[in-house]
Write a structure and sequence with these properties.
By secondary structure, this protein is mainly β. Helices cover about 0% and strands about 40% of the residues. The chain is built from no helices and 8 strands. The strands form 3 sheets. The protein has a 3-stranded antiparallel beta sheet, with no helix packed on it. It has a 3-stranded antiparallel beta sheet with strand order 3-4-5, with no helix packed on it. The protein is elongated. The protein starts with a strand and ends with a strand.
Length: about 80
């Protein structure tokens, strides 16, 4: 029997970056992280980016997935660790 095992894993990273020209994080008006890049604006209009250069391969918790689903060849769910 052929099955598909779909799992959601936890991965964490940490990066130290320097935001030039500010003394307190409260000066940052808005921010978000996407594609391993910290995006921020100090004035609400001009956005700047800082690459985080994360090394996530060592931070993936392969041992304890957050969830697991088992599907058959017809893509029908057979079992799940989710409620």
């Amino acid at each position: 029997m052929k099955i598909e095992v779909d799992r959601t894993l936890f991965a964490g990273t940490r990066s130290d970056i320097e935001i030039e020209g500010i003394e307190d994080f409260s000066e940052v008006k808005e921010w978000f992280v996407k594609w391993d890049t910290f995006h921020y604006t100090l004035d609400g209009e001009n956005w700047k980016e800082i690459k985080l250069n994360s090394e996530s391969t060592d931070c993936i918790d392969w041992k304890r997935p957050l969830s697991v689903k088992i599907f058959d060849e017809k893509n029908e769910e057979l079992a799940s660790t989710e409620d």
